[in-house]
Amino acid sequence: MKSKKLGINSRMIHSGEFENQLGSATVPIYQTSTFLFENAEHGARCFSGEESGYIYTRIANPTINALETLVADLESGAKGIATSSGMAAVNTVYMALLSKGDHMVSSAAVYGPSRVVMEQHWSRFGVESSFVDTSNIEEIKKAIKPNTKLLYIETPANPTMDITDLKACVEIAHQKGIIVVVDNTFCSPYLQRPLEMGVDVVLHSMTKFLNGHADIVAGMIVTADATLGAKLRSIMVTLGCNMDPHQAYMVIRGIKTLGIRIERSQASAMKIARFLESHPKIEWVKYPGLESHPQHELAKKQMDGFGSMISFGVRGGFEAGKILMDNVKVCIHAVSLGGVETLIQHPASMTHSKVSAEAKRLAGITDNLVRFSVGIEDVEDIIDDLDQALQKVKL
Ligand code: LCS
Description:
Elements: H1 8-14, H2 40-48, H3 62-74, E1 79-83, H4 86-97, E2 103-107, H5 112-120, E3 128-132, H6 137-143, E4 148-154, H7 166-175, E5 179-183, E6 201-205, E7 219-223, H8 226-239, H9 245-255, H10 258-277, E8 282-286, H11 296-302, E9 309-314, H12 317-327, E10 332-333, E11 343-345, H13 357-363, E12 369-373, H14 379-391
Parallel strand pairs: 2-3, 2-4, 4-5, 5-6, 10-11
Antiparallel strand pairs: 1-7, 6-7, 8-9, 9-12, 11-12
The chain binds ligand LCS.
Ligand LCS binds near residues 114 and 158.
């Protein structure tokens, strides 16, 4: 690691070690599947772990390692484990930390597939789960059972923007030997560093803010403890959900502008949230920066900024939301988030469509919930676009 003393913006540019043989200003792409051994002895030493040479890209690769060191540094963690996607990171964590007969407590509102894979697939291997409103700490306490091994939190949650008190989670869980995992996708380490609050493991869909340009899919796990990191790495390697070197290069490139992208998009998000809050065709707005957000005070304490994700309800329900999404011209009607372009989508019929109707109701994912990821366009253009599309909504 270059230096812990540098500020986060400097570390986004300069952290991430690699063997720089030719004085390259950026991390080269080691686009290779395998690495040469000097001789049979060298090969045997690498395999036994006596020597830490590169063997095979599924196990380790210099470009991917540079990214892992970089994100681990930004998250104040010990080890980074890059994965092919955010869902690969989620499943690696589930597989490493849960066994038959174990139980997981999680947020009722999480990215749909993170819940669906647990309820429909990990359950087949005897893993139990409870999804509760983790923004209410009492609900977590009530859900913990003797076999609970994992507390899995998304904050702010996708798509409700509910915020969970991470320090309180750590206190409750660690008393009972439960590991705390946080999906930090909505914030990125620029806005929230759960490991600094005592959380054990952080994961990311780097498809979103870290890469930031909507052009690749990627994931990352960061652990506070190196031994736990080694365990997660061995699961990732044997599952084969490794990242590709080119993917790693793209994320390293994206992270260089993470700070300036987030500063701009969250400044716009605040203005857009206020515009929506005062608009007669909008029923409700949930943005951590608004005083009306139920956990606004917690957001101020726990996050270094309010981010660029907004959820809101259009008056007139799903039909009205559809008219809005069909009429935007600058904003893009698509899933995903955290890119330079503003995206608008409808979770109930898209990202969370496979979550049961009852689970959606309990999680507060209403039919009129529209999720908005603010990009870095001129904010006036986004507001004008929303305004003209909302004019088409007839009450
Ligand atoms: N965690 C969160 C919070 C996410 O939002 C997503 C993807 C994932 C994990 C999974 O990451 P992936 O495998 O896609 O890299 N969220 C998406 C969304 O809200 N719309 O499309 C994808």
